[in-house]
């Protein structure tokens, strides 16, 4: 990075900003071209998807139309007149019901001879059905089928049929009931209003004959659908692109439900993407204009930025001299944030220096207290031991307990730890388990002095109990409880008790060792309180009564 920086000359920030704007021109233009290319690709893919979806939409419209026709045909097939053979009445009722639409009903026998046709009056001479192939297929399968497009002999126009095979008792009147529809009347279902300009739509039958079509090409009903497009229609629902007469044509197609018809939508890709060329031109011109404006703005911004940086530099120099400074406000938000941060840093620095000074003083004070405590411990232990090994063992255990208390305090930044935690910390180190030790009382936060001194007291009580007291036998138990008392003049006091039970009989020691000194004299002196020790038959009872303020941290006590 250092070698790279040497390639850049020393210049003002304004010069660098202008250079950056100029150097950004070519990448920006390249990026715009890339975006347009990506846009063209995405629009192309979107066009393919939309074309297939439009074909499916038209297909669903025709599917609903055929389903409606199927429902109508089934209802007519169950008419009572067919069962009784009253064809004139059937003709009259059906012709009246379908008079406002473009649907017509035929009744034919198995040879295709028409027995009635609602296009003409009942009893008029009728020709044989034109669509014999679909009739034979229906009679063979026993299912409703739709025909392809054909020119009707009676209607003299392009139509298609939906044929229902009749079963008894209706079959006594004829073999099949036919619902015929004029193809041209369904042209609205292929409307191209929502398609791109110059696009067409068509519905084709199984023989690739156009049933109905709309759009610029508008292939007439019965005409052949273009072969080069038919070859692309592979599968049920899809889209495809082909080159025809030098133009790229897109085709979307879909099946009409379970019927043997297909829907096709096609047209030139160029008309669908005509707006993209204008987008290319507008984006390029817009980019050039934007860059020109940007250069002018950069020059103005460079001047303002230089001024703001100089103000911040002046603030930094004052902080370096140790001054507490107020923020210098500029016209740039980020520069103001830096100025505020520098101002806050000057205050924080002054506060940090004061705190460091306080911590150093506190550290000296606590170190003196700890060293005095260790010194007194060593003096007392040296008087009561006869060998170096015993002295080392006694000192090691007590220093370990003291170290645990100090470590726990350090983790809490000397803010104190809960009284229950102090008890657990010391007794676990000596006993190894709290299963035979019960604590009672509303927990409180013990201050640093109480943590260290109570740690020594509980260590001595636990050590003595393990050696001679209740914890020396499996059935022994220890209860540690504390209660709060009302003292004189409204002051609060605490009574802390150590009660052993289930152990061997205890006897008051004949001489006062270090442990006795700690739990009696040292505890009373450390907390400005009173210690009472009872060597009862049930076990040792130790009670400390002291001001609550001597043990509790300034944060107070409560459930922790």
From TrEMBL:
What EC identifiers does the entry list? 2.7.13.3
User: What SMART domains does the record point to?
Assistant: HWE_HK
Q: Per the UniProt record, which residue ranges are transmembrane?
A: 12-37, 283-302
What protein does this entry describe? histidine kinase
Which GO molecular function annotations are given, in alphabetical order?
ATP binding; protein histidine kinase activity
Name the domain of life. Answer: Bacteria
EC class, as a word, reads transferase
**Positions of the Signal transduction histidine kinase HWE region domain:** 362-443
Q: Catalytic activity, per the record?
A: ATP + protein L-histidine = ADP + protein N-phospho-L-histidine
* A Pfam family assignment: HWE_HK
InterPro entries per the record? Answer: HATPase_C_sf (IPR036890), Sig_transdc_His_kinase_HWE (IPR011102)
Keywords, ordered alphabetically: ATP-binding, Kinase, Membrane, Nucleotide-binding, Phosphoprotein, Transferase, Transmembrane, Transmembrane helix
Q: Which CDD domains match?
A: PDC2_HK_sensor
């Amino acid at each position: 990075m250092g070698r790279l920086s040497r390639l850049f000359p020393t210049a003002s920030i304004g010069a660098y900003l202008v250079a950056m704007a100029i150097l950004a021109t070519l990448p920006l233009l390249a990026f715009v071209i890339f975006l347009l290319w990506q846009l063209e690709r995405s629009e192309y893919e979107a066009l393919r998807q939309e074309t297939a979806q439009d074909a499916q939409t038209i297909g669903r419209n025709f599917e609903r139309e055929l389903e409606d026709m199927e429902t109508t045909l089934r209802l007519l097939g169950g008419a009572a007149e067919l069962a009784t053979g009253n064809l004139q009445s059937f003709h009259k009722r059906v012709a009246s019901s379908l008079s406002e639409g473009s649907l017509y009903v035929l009744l034919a026998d198995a040879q295709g001879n028409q027995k009635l046709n609602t296009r003409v009056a009942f009893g008029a001479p009728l020709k044989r059905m034109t669509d014999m192939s679909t009739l034979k297929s229906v009679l063979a399968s026993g299912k409703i089928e739709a025909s392809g497009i054909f020119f009707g002999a009676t209607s003299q126009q392009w139509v298609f049929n939906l044929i229902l095979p009749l079963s008894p008792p209706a079959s006594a009147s004829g073999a099949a009931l036919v619902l015929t529809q004029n193809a041209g009347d369904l042209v609205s279902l292929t409307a191209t209003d929502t398609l791109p300009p110059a696009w067409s739509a068509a519905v084709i039958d199984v023989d690739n004959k156009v049933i109905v079509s709309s759009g610029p090409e508008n292939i007439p009903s019965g005409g052949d659908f273009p072969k080069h497009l038919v070859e692309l229609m592979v599968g049920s629902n899809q889209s495809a692109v082909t080159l025809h007469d030098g133009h790229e044509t897109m085709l979307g197609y879909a099946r009409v439900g379970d019927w043997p018809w297909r829907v096709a939508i096609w047209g030139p890709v160029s008309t669908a993407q005509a707006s993209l060329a204008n987008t290319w031109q507008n984006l390029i011109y817009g980019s050039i204009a934007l860059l020109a404006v940007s250069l002018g703005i950069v020059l103005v911004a460079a001047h303002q930025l230089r001024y703001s940086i100089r103000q911040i530099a002046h603030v930094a120099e004052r902080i370096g001299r140790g001054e507490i400074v107020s923020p210098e406000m500029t016209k740039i938000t980020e520069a103001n944030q830096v100025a505020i941060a520098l101002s806050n840093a000057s205050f924080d620095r002054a506060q940090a220096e004061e705190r460091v000074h306080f911590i150093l003083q506190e550290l000296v004070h606590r170190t003196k207290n700890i060293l005095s405590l260790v010194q007194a411990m060593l003096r007392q232990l040296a008087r009561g031991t006869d060998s170096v090994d015993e002295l080392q063992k006694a000192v090691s255990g007590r220093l370990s307990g003291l170290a645990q208390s100090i470590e726990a305090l350090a983790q809490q930044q000397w803010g104190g730890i809960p009284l229950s935690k102090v008890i657990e910390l010391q007794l676990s180190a000596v006993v190894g388990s709290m299963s035979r030790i019960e604590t009672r009382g509303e927990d409180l936060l013990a201050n640093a002095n109480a943590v260290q001194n109570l740690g020594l007291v509980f260590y001595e009580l636990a050590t003595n109990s393990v050696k001679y007291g209740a914890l020396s036998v499996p059935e022994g138990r220890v209860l540690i409880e504390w209660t709060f008392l009302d003292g004189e003049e409204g002051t609060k006091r605490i009574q802390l008790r150590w009660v052993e039970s289930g152990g061997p009989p205890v006897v008051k020691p004949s001489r006062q060792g270090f442990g006795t000194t700690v739990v009696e004299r040292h505890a009373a002196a450390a907390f400005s309180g009173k210690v009472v020790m009872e060597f009862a038959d049930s076990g040792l009872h130790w009670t400390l009564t002291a001001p609550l303020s001597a043990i509790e941290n300034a944060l107070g006590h409560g459930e922790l």
